[in-house]
Amino acid sequence: MKRFKQFLLMIMTFVLLFSLSACIIIPVKKYYDISAEEIVSIQFYDLRIQEGNGEPGFDKIYEPAYTLSEKDNEAFLDDFSNLKFSDTIIFALVAMDPSFSYGDWVIRINFSNGQYTFYSSAGYGETFDADGNTISTTHLSCDDEKLEELIKKYYKTA
Q1: DSSP 8-class letter at 157
Q2: How far is the first Cα of the chain from the last one, in angstroms, to the nearest whole number?
Q3: Higher-confidence residue: 117 or 3?
Q4: 66-96 pLDDT, tens per residue?
Q5: What is d(CA 122, CA 110) in angstroms, rounded to the nearest whole number?
Q6: Are the CB atoms for 115 and 130 separated by under 8 Å?
Q7: What are the structural domain ranges in the chain?
Q8: What are phi and psi of 92, to 5 degrees?
Q9: Of 144, 50, 41, whose CA–CA distance to 99 is shortest?
């Protein structure tokens, strides 16, 4: 009986240690469906040649490379709604460092209520209120090539 208790204790300890050191992975995906009536303008930032490529606050230093014409907003948003943004949420004993970089291309969508949101392929995005205060952040990313193709479809010199 004593041996059985020791064996049971050893198995329970092993299961506990394994569960604490293992991780849980949850895939998340999202498609952004934004109505053209909600927005004022859409801007593209080309951060490929900028120093400090794609770090938060880049918009205070760099001007947008291109502002989409108002007549193209609806078509762009329709194409944009087909981009799959995804992330993997990992619960682990060790802290994971999420992405805090925008990458090469950033899309800024300015809403009629004064808010604006940055979307990127590198996995970082932010939403700001009309005063420039951060409302939320996200770590959803999309395929680099697909985002660049979408931007080049509307910004011919990209």
Answers
A1: T
A2: 75
A3: 117
A4: 999 999 999 999 999 999 888 766 555 555 5
A5: 20
A6: yes
A7: 23-154
A8: -140, 160
A9: 144
- Give the C-alpha separation, 64 to 108, whole Å: 9
Radius of gyration of the chain (CA): 22
Q: How far apart are CA 103 and CA 101, in angstroms?
A: 6
Packing angle of the helix pair 144-154, 73-80 (nearest 10 deg): 170
Question: Residue 96: which H helix or E strand, with range?
Answer: none
Closest CA to 158 of 72, 48, 42: 48
119: how many CB neighbours lie within 10 A of its CB? 24
Amino acid at 158: A
Give the pTM. 0.74
Per residue in 36-50, pLDDT (tens digit) is 999 999 999 888 776
Question: Strand, helix or coil at 125?
Answer: strand
Provide CB contacts within 8 A for 11, sequence distance 6+.
none
What are the beta bridge partners of residue 74?
none
Instruction: Give the type of residue at 64.
Output: P
- How much is the pLDDT for 51? 62
Chain segment 89-147, per-residue pLDDT in tens:
655 555 555 556 777 888 999 999 999 999 888 877 889 999 989 898 888 888 888 98
